[in-house]
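[SOLVED] Predicted holo structure with nicotinamide-adenine-dinucleotide

Edit: marking solved, answer below. Original request kept for reference. I posted the sequence and ligand SMILES and asked for the 3D complex as structure tokens.
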Amino acid sequence: MTGGGFFGRARSRFRHQLLDRLEGMAARAPYPALPGIGPASGSRPIGIAIVGCGFVADFYAACLPAWPMLMLRAVHDRDDARAAAFAGRNPGVTVASLDVLLADPNIAIIVNLTNPASHAAITRAALMAGKHVYSEKPMALDIAEAGELVALARARSLHLACAPCTVLSETAQAMRFAIARGDIGTVRLVYAELDDGPVHQMRPQEWASPQGTPWPWVDELATGCTLQHACYHLGWMTIMFGPIEAVSGFSRTLDPDKGLGPIAPGPDFSVACVTFRSGVTARLTCSTIAPHDQHFRVIGDRGELFTDACWHGKAPVYLRRHSDTTMRAEGFPVIRRHALLRALFGLHGSLSDLSPRATWRERIARHQIDYASGIADLARALAEGGEPVMSGERALDVARAVIAIDGAGS
Ligand SMILES: NC(=O)c1ccc[n+]([C@@H]2O[C@H](COP(=O)([O-])OP(=O)(O)OC[C@H]3O[C@@H](n4cnc5c(N)ncnc54)[C@H](O)[C@@H]3O)[C@@H](O)[C@H]2O)c1
């Protein structure tokens, strides 16, 4: 109990807040430099080839120059004109048939950027040809098929790494580090939202990469929000809390009329509860109905870590320490509604040290993803041994959960 009378309570509250602030400052000690990814500078360049020269391939190409050890040698697309246009924009890159590309001894890694329905076939062909694979998500559209691909890679001593590369982002790594350091005590619960807004109402027909490649809106909406997006937060969770134990889900198509003509849209809403073998429980929501919301909140016994942009690799991480004062203050609507009162009672949390590392150009970007970082991490595993962060096993864990949640409505 606090001291009696108004002034006694105010003094006690002030003391609590001061202690919270001091504790908070201690917890804000800078995060250490992230472990280097990508091969050491002395190692030989690694030849890579891209299969699927669509929208996202342009973003991969833009990120590759930051990783000089990755040599993009050849590309293939079932649409010849697309492959030729992509090669034309990227000097030194040749167009090849899939067979020629898979037989090329100078290519070690196949980067599978085809549409989800083609992922499994291209990955299987590449593994059969003795190539390591970096695949966009989802690894496959079927749980058994995803398991077979991982088993095939293992049997042939090849790597099958998978998106999302956002597990390597500064934001994800800072959160992982803060959790491991015990900044919020024992983690019990995660609330994760991946609402991407009602895309079908946002003229997606007009969206294109900076190079003019159209966004494949029909395929995206037909595949559905869960298969496209659940992996982002689940990937983060697996690097923070380890293997998934169980999933229960609910998936629906809330708006069946998205203008796709004869093609049926995939689920546009799902919610799932996921338990991890480490004891953490998460609730994950995905939609292309609710307005944009990418909050990822990790709740521990002593506080909460959160961010609001999982597609921005340098998004700040916030730390909110729980205390008697903050928890009680949170219950007062008047405090929640006024910025000054929120700040006074420490409800905003404190910003991590990530933010100053982002340049202004990076900060104002809508998305900030280093698409090539996942390939570089695979190249690091090849050069130095060990597994890529999003290894076949981890990606399979995520893929199983994603496919199960997606199918939970039928
Ligand atoms: N669109 C995005 O914003 C985005 C972001 C991150 C990841 N991704 C993922 O990247 C992948 C590709 O997405 P995209 O937006 O570039 O799609 P896209 O439709 O623009 O491009 C895919 C390309 O793959 C080619 N292709 C498909 N099957 C093929 C096959 N069997 N053999 C050869 N070529 C084939 C198509 O002709 C097309 O050019 C998807 O898995 C998607 O989930 C997309």
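OP edit: Residues 51-57, 76-79, 82, 113-116, 118, 122, 136-137, 215-216, 219, 228 surround nicotinamide-adenine-dinucleotide (CB under 6 Å). Thanks to everyone who chimed in.
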